[in-house]
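To: structure desk
From: M.T.
Subject: fold request, one chain
Message: Could you run this one when you get a chance? Sequence is below, nothing fancy, just the single chain.
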Amino acid sequence: MITNALSVDIEDWFQVGAFENTISRDDWDRLEHRVEANTDAVLALFGESGVKGTFFTLGWVAKRYPALLRRIADAGHEVASHGWDHKRVFTLSAEEFRADIDAAKKALEDASGAKVTGYRAPSFSIDKRTPWAHAVLAEQGYAYSSSVAPIGHDHYGWRDAPRAAFKPVAGADLIELPITIANFLGKEVTAGGGFFRLLPGKVTDNAVRAANGAAHPGIFYFHPWEIDPGQPRVGNAPLKSRLRHYARLGAMAGKLRRLIGNHQWGRMDVIAAREAERLA
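Reply: Done. Structure tokens follow.
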């Protein structure tokens, strides 16, 4: 049986891309922080299911909640980088990107006591606009990235990218593990996050099985705020953003338990190492 990647993008409810034009970064520290409690709930869910996963965490979170990072590592999960404060990679220069991932990696390693070798771009924002990004990650010694969504989408997407693990930088060991793509009524969507919440669970189940049938691991993701139906509401956000963010939050934990029970799951770093051997 193929082991699939179980990953969590650790950010708080106010740091998401859907609210980036509504909530100012200057206000983040004044808002109610729920990331620690929500991530602890994810750790408990994984613990009851007996699975290990990868927690792609913002440096901003690690700086404020170092004990949380230690709990993640002590529970046997991988701590990986989600950048410093959720700036999309295509909004940065190469130099700004390097500074962002350097600061995040230091904060994550200081907090967790674990070496960080993996990276996921906020909102899957490595695409054809950032031809330098993978090279920077390779130069900085990352073993893998999971930052590409090989579809078209209004917030992200690199439609022409490979759909299985690939080496994005010639002569470098860096592996890119694109997010798995699902199909719903002829439309392609990412396997995880809002689409997992909103669509029937079998859509993601089928995507994981299809990847496994092609001898590839499925790559799945979600966020801790997605299991928190009690989070504050942002009433002045666009209607489309509110629908995406708040719909079916109460159903998420149950859907996760069922998905976890239907497949074999593990950490991204372990899967990246196996894929690196396959591509060698």
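Reply (cont.): The chain has ten helices and ten strands. Let me know if you need anything else for the meeting.
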